[in-house]
Amino acid sequence: MSATLSEATPASFVRHPIRLTLNGQARELHVLPWTTLLDLLREQLDLVGSKKGCDHGQCGACTVLRDGKRINACLTLAVMCDGAELTTIEGLANGDQLHPMQQAFIKHDAFQCGYCTPGQICSAVGLANEGRAQTGAQISELMSGNLCRCGAYNNIRDAIEEALPLCQQGGDQ
């Protein structure tokens, strides 16, 4: 007796359709239920700016924006993003015009090896969207979920402090 494909395939192996807006473009994708957003971005969509630093939500290297709020892509299942608007580091610039936060990171040399930089910048844009940080100390506290092994924290804080007013005036995503 032969089983049909639907009888032989466990439900967990069925790809689920999701629709989302990714860096300004509408996308319809089919993903396995256990696929993380980070794996979807890096392995299936070739958006490799977000990094897999710890894969446990402890370093922030995978930070992206979901509906303008920062999230750890390694802890978010892709199916949870159905209907969401996602922005990765690749989607922050407007053509050749860098996002104000990207410009500030360059100006303040807010990176060394650069591994954490995409997550730092996306998190900083999310921080600007939140509108909670008013001082350097608040920026440091609210960015504490993003680690920099090279120790560029002072430059990162200075870059964010400079870019916050520009982002809050409409230069953000």
TrEMBL record:
Keywords, in A-Z order: Iron, Metal-binding, Oxidoreductase
SUPFAM superfamilies: 2Fe-2S ferredoxin-like, CO dehydrogenase ISP C-domain like
InterPro entries (UniProt xref): 2Fe-2S-bd, 2Fe-2S-bd_dom_sf, 2Fe-2S_ferredoxin-like_sf, 2Fe-2S_ferredoxin-type, 2Fe2S_fd_BS, Aldehyde_Oxdr_Iron-Sulfur, Beta-grasp_dom_sf
Pfam families assigned to the protein according to its UniProt record, in alphabetical order: Fer2 (PF00111), Fer2_2 (PF01799)
The 2Fe-2S ferredoxin-type domain, residue ranges: 16-92
Protein's recorded name: (2Fe-2S)-binding protein
